Amino acid sequence: MTQRVAIIGAGPCGLSQLRAFQQAEEKGEAIPELTCFEKQSGWGGLWNYDWHTGTDPYGEPVHGGMYRYLWSNGPKECLEFADYTFDDHFKKPIGSFPPREVLYDYITGRAKHGDLRRYVQFDTPVKFVEYVDSTGKFEVRVKNLVEDRERTEVFDYVIVCTGHFSVPHVPDFEGIDRFPGRVMHAHDFREAREFTGRHLLVIGGSYSAEDIALQSLKYGAASVTISYRTQAMGFDWPDGIIERPLLTKLEDKTAHFKDGSTKDVDTIILCTGYLHHFPFLEDRLRLKTHNRMYPPGLYKGIFWEDNPKLMYLGMQDQFYTFSMFDIQAWYARDVVLGRIAMPSKEEMAQDIAKWVAREETLASPFEQIDFQTDYMKELHQQVDYPPFDIDMAADHFKTWEHDKEHSITGYRDQAFKSPCTGTQAPVPHTPWIEAMDDSMAAYLRTEGG
Ligand code: FAD
Ligand code: NA7
């Protein structure tokens, strides 16, 4: 009997998974019946910009947390699909740090090319997944939002591709409940111009804090104070941005920090990360982790140790994104197709323990890059994903780290070489700090063209 595979989510991971199966089919292999459930009306996951905050028109929690004026925060060469390169899609070299719409066009371009839409049921969130021991299958309850109707289907495999950057982590701070201005999480940030002339307090010390602080200043905020818990990002911030240790309390508009300093602010943006949150999975199937490079419990970073017929893609903290999702998807596919045999429980546990132990020794971003590169290589060598120069991609990440140290406002003006095609990206026609228009048309415009 034909096996059935449920893919939950049609973001980059879900689309990678569909593409992986489709590639096997193109090579003449029989593939299982695929059904991808997507809660939104469109695909592309976070890259599918959604102006809503809070709940969507159906009362479902809004998934998207990407905002206007979001330019890629890493070189696009490090996320390139080896089986559908930027040259394949854009037919000309493009810059290394494109805005969101360009990457959305790229991801969905491959999906359209392969007519992957036929597998996707939109407006259909997965509400609950249970594994039935007696049948060895999953019962998946979904809701058709348009018809307001639930139904249950049975699957042999479930692949969770719901991402882990959409349910905000919202810590409490003394006095924040009486703060007389706006308090929001990065997940609800959409339009930096809302804060023109404002004094912002951004709490967090990672990518969201860095980018929201920078772009708020770029679009006219009067000042941005970044408050970190563990470590200052320590970039050479432009005038208008300062870093302070952790917020200890708020008294009216006055923020007090651990070093005794204070600052009056109008708006607070919590860039305090996200929760791995899977309320739609029964407890014994649910990955419980914070954002880390190798969440324990996932063999090869994919297979749920207690029940490897359940898979998770893209659940690690990410340097690599789309290319890593592809490699994971190819590997997951090959296990489903029986091309790769799963080892014994003991071997799985040992393999996970080996990676987790190494993760715990990682002392710098460079070591994290090497770690994720080795992880990618290990999976890549076992699947027929097209070859690409992954060492070049790893070097790009290290150069990018240096570029950021050198100039946090200028790193997006650098240009990298493709590890897939060797194509050298052009330098952008407008420096990022001066580029106000984030449309694809503006970005792809060539001088004089
Ligand atoms: P997502 O993109 O989150 O997609 C998950 C999909 O699953 C969504 O379509 C969602 O609607 C669907 N879904 C969720 N729950 C259900 C359910 N119960 N039933 C059915 N469908 C469901 N990466 C980069 O490479 N470069 C960047 O510049 C970059 N910037 C980022 C900026 C922000 C603000 C954030 C939050 C992330 C950024 N990322 C960036 C990382 C980003 O997470 C990945 O690029 C990528 O989107 C992850 O893909 P995914 O498929 O795992 O998850
Ligand atoms: P990350 O990278 O998971 O970082 C979360 C940040 O939030 C991190 O700096 C944490 O500080 C900080 N945090 C968490 N809890 C607190 C509390 N209680 N107080 C202060 N600070 C806190 O999430 P991001 O949103 O930055 O990035 C996620 C993705 O979005 C990423 O892929 C980007 O591409 C865009 P810590 O350093 O642990 O002390």
Automatic annotation (TrEMBL):
The keyword Flavoprotein applies. Transmembrane segments: none annotated. GO terms for molecular function: flavin adenine dinucleotide binding; N,N-dimethylaniline monooxygenase activity; NADP binding; trimethylamine monooxygenase activity. InterPro entries: FAD/NAD-bd_sf, Flavin_mOase, Flavin_mOase-like, FMO-like. Keywords: FAD, Flavoprotein, Monooxygenase, NADP, Oxidoreductase. Its cofactor is FAD. Pfam families: FMO-like. Its EC number is 1.14.13.148. Belongs to the FMO family. This is Trimethylamine monooxygenase. It comes from Candidatus Entotheonella gemina.
